[in-house]
């Protein structure tokens, strides 16, 4: 009980609450700009968190992510351009409502479902994470090796698109993770006689390059006449109605959808490599499959908005379960968060609830506050949404580019980090242009060191005996789970062939 009170006091002070408020405004602004993701917002925020107290820094990241996920619905509703990938699943319905003059109604329902989903995901985090941490105390380096493999495999096979391209993207991240001194021999690897690379590649400039720099390059790769034409077509249909007027009616009618979307979103978010966008796609597909009026989906049906809108914010909190307990990122946002936790002395793992119990409860409190403040901030954002929707991206991108350069340099006051950021931006642009997913590369970078460290430690303890990796009961269970994840595409294909309508794909969900 004392730890809980200490955690609450860490959040309910003037400095932390002010940081949460400013982070909420920042998250809404970035999320509402078409093409700028919640991960990019968090990556830009990380250098600023260096000067903050640990609780304030984590609270800022939590708030920014929650706000950006919701704010992605604003351009999707007004312009049919999803602000974040998590908004893409139901953009056809929200845009149809916007064209019908019901944008405020749709966004009011979205922000309410986001709050409910976020609070549900937080409750799942509070109830599951400490209990799971007690179980994880039985883990050794063998189990952590399989957990790292599970995280890497999930990033490839759970993500949308080609599994082969996801695997190759993962290899890029693992290659970056090998830069630096070998942990066993101390020999330099891929350092090219650059002293700054002896300690490895810092994940922050890579994050900024892979997400923020990539968005800048993608915009400026568009011909100027097309970009100007795109900005010129950003017109908004006349709107009517209040923000929350019909929300009680919709919630009363679709309360089962809220519960299903929130719980399923939190569960999917807890899977390593899944994230809010995949949770939104799956919940939208399930909603359409279970609906009595599936033909109305994609034409302005609010039922899909309830399911997917509840799921994406629930997944944001759910993704923190593997991140806190095992140090395995649940999505690209928590991949960034893990590095911040290490910098702030909150080493993720099962002992975090014993060594930093007050800060852990402060983190839970920050989740509740961030989701509750989403309601008033979201209301203000909806009332002034036309400002976000019509802001030309070519005005914002030079400012974002400056943030990228300053943020990368400020980490170690080193130009090497700036060059890393620029090179990673080019690499991200090249692989994304070829339809390679970027998220597996990020997870490969974060999990690469965990994988190598636990593998080498286990091999030393087992004197080179590979069978030691499957001798412990928990290790065998995790190894079988890894095998199941690897076989998932084959099993899913077989299931669709045998039962064609039993397992709809995300593409079918919006057709």
Automatic annotation (TrEMBL):
Pfam families: TctA. Residues 17-443 form the DUF112 domain. This is C4-dicarboxylate ABC transporter permease. PANTHER family: TRICARBOXYLIC TRANSPORT PROTEIN. The keyword Transmembrane applies. The chain crosses the membrane at residues 7-33, 45-71, 107-132, 144-160, 167-185, 197-216, 264-287, 319-342, 363-382, 394-411, 418-451, 474-492. It comes from the Bacteria. InterPro entries: DUF112_TM (IPR002823). Keywords: Membrane, Transmembrane, Transmembrane helix. Signal peptide: none annotated.
């Amino acid at each position: 009980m004392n730890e809980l009170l200490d955690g609450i006091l860490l959040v309910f002070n003037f400095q932390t609450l002010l940081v949460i408020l400013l982070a909420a405004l920042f998250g809404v602004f970035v999320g509402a700009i078409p093409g700028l993701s919640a991960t990019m917002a968090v990556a830009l925020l990380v250098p600023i968190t260096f000067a903050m107290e640990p609780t304030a820094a984590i609270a800022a990241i939590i708030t920014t992510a929650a706000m950006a996920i919701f704010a992605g619905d604003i351009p999707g509703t007004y312009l049919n351009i999803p602000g974040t990938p998590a908004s893409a699943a139901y953009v056809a319905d929200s845009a149809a409502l916007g064209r019908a003059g019901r944008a405020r109604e749709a966004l009011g329902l979205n922000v309410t479902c986001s709050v409910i989903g976020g609070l549900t995901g937080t409750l799942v985090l509070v109830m599951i994470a400490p209990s799971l941490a007690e179980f994880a105390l039985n883990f050794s380096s063998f189990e952590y090796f399989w957990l790292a493999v599970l995280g890497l495999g999930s990033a490839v096979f759970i993500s949308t698109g080609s599994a082969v391209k996801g695997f190759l993207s993962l290899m890029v991240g693992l290659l970056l993770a090998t830069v630096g001194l070998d942990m066993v021999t101390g020999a330099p690897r891929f350092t090219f006689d650059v002293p700054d690379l002896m300690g490895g590649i810092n994940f922050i400039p890579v994050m900024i390059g892979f997400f923020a720099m990539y968005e800048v390059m993608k915009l400026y790769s568009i011909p100027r006449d097309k970009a100007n034409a795109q900005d010129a077509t950003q017109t908004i249909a006349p709107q009517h109605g209040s923000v929350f007027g019909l929300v009680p009616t919709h919630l009363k009618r679709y309360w089962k959808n809220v519960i299903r979307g929130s719980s399923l979103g939190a569960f999917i978010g807890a899977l390593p490599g899944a994230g809010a966008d995949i949770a939104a796609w799956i919940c939208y597909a399930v909603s359409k499959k279970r609906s009595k009026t599936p033909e109305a989906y994609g034409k302005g049906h609010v039922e899909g908005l309830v399911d997917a809108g509840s799921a994406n914010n629930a997944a944001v909190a759910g993704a923190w379960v593997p991140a806190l307990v095992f140090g395995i990122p649940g999505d690209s946002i928590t991949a960034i968060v893990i590095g911040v936790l290490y910098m702030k002395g909150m080493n993720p793992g099962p002992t975090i609830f014993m060594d930093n119990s007050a800060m852990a409860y402060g983190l839970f409190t920050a989740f509740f506050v961030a989701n509750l403040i989403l309601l008033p901030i979201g209301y203000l954002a909806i009332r002034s949404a036309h400002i976000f929707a019509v802001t030309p991206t070519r005005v914002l991108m030079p400012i974002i580019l400056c943030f990228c350069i300053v943020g990368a340099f400020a980490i170690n006051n080193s130009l090497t980090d700036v060059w890393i950021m620029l090179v990673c931006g080019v690499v991200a642009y090249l692989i994304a242009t070829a339809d390679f997913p970027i998220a597996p590369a990020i997870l490969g970078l974060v999990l690469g060191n965990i994988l190598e460290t636990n593998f080498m430690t286990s091999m030393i303890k087992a004197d080179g005996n590979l069978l030691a990796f499957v001798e412990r009961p928990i290790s065998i269970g995790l190894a079988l789970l890894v095998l199941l994840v690897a076989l998932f595409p084959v099993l899913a294909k077989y299931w669709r062939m045998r039962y064609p309508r039993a397992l709809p794909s995300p593409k079918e969900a919006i057709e």
